[in-house]
Amino acid sequence: MPGDGEKLQREAKGKTGNVEDADEHAGHGADQDQVHHRGSGADDCLQHIAQRHALARELSHGEQRYLEIGIALATDPDFLLLDEPTAGMSRSEADHAVALIRRVTAGKTLVMVEHDMSVVFDLADVVTVLVYGQVIASGPPAEIRASRAVQDAYLGAPAEIA
Asked: Which of 46, 95, 40 is nearest to 70 (CA)?
């Protein structure tokens, strides 16, 4: 049987739940001190959504992403998996989302699938790069950025000076 967090995630993906549902879930079964401590990451995400009564399908794309992350954080997980959290966002929206993700995942393990390398390099402590399912490099962002194999596969080889 699915838990409350999974139910809210399905509602957000199906765009039938609203922000108040997620906000209420952040405090489900806890006293107010626990809610403040436990739900702070979720609350941080949800406060960026102006339309508290709106259904998820009525929110902007960026607000839907904040809702999804807020719902994922509502159960105070130690581990968070995000799939392209900034997909479809403008550069300024993505920059704001990266700052928010950094803040709300402090002290948590974050695993992220992301194709925007600036987001990856900004958030990750360790980057693992795959090509056709095979690991070609794994290490700190600076090491990955300097890797010739990664540059050839994803970043574009540096231009040669004539």
From this structure: 46
Q: Indicate the domain borders of the chain.
A: 4-112, 125-162
State how far the alpha carbon of 130 is from the alpha carbons of 24, 136, 147, in Å: 39, 6, 13
Q: How far apart are CA 81 and CA 43, in angstroms?
A: 18
The CA–CA distances, whole Å, from 38 to 73, 83, 106, 113, 160 equal 9, 23, 13, 25, 52
Residue of higher predicted confidence among 138 and 55: 138
- CATH code of the domain made up of 4-112: 3.40.50.300
Q: What are phi and psi of 124, to 5 degrees?
A: -85, 145
Cα within 13 Å of Cα(6), Cβ side: 3
Q: What is the pLDDT of residues 91-147, one digit of tens each?
A: 988 998 999 899 888 889 999 999 888 999 999 999 999 999 999 999 999 999 899
Q: CA 28, CA 33: separation in Å to the nearest integer?
A: 12
Task: Compute how many other C-beta atoms are within 10 angstroms of the C-beta atom of residue 73.
Answer: 25
Q: Find the length of the chain.
A: 162
